[in-house]
User: What shape does this take?
Amino acid sequence: MGTAKDYKKIQDIVASYSSKLKEFSEETFLLNPPIGGWSYSEVYFHIFDASILSLMEMTNTISGKGERKPTAFIVKVILFFGSLPPGKKYNAPKRLAARLKKVSKTEALALIDQFLLELDMAMKKIENADSTLKTPHPKLGYLNAFQWLRFIRIHLNHHLQQLRRIEQSYQR
Assistant: This one.
């Protein structure tokens, strides 16, 4: 999938997040689900906080910062197939887990808007990115600008599936 397709897919996924956000009452949004784990609020904070941080790394590579490091083969496979390997529980990197907090629906919407604004700005510059310059991801190793964009899409989609699991837990 190319850069333009990744960008369009990210916009579609974010539209799904925005649409789902409207469905929740503020109380349900903040409530920890019956299955345990993160509330809707914490998922929204995590995914858009992490996405904004990923955009910062993507922008760093676009602006010429980074190192010429290899990308691990397994990471190339994940990026190629566009999803994390199934059947495994993934924990947020410690740095991101320490940032986790509950936010209101209004704050979540502001994070979404901030992410989309920063994504649009980065997309205007990505064609100038040097694909050999990479910055470190806390779990996946070194990624270039195009790989960061693909990772953002994969990560957003992964947590959209998490929202579905939370929703199903309320229906049991």
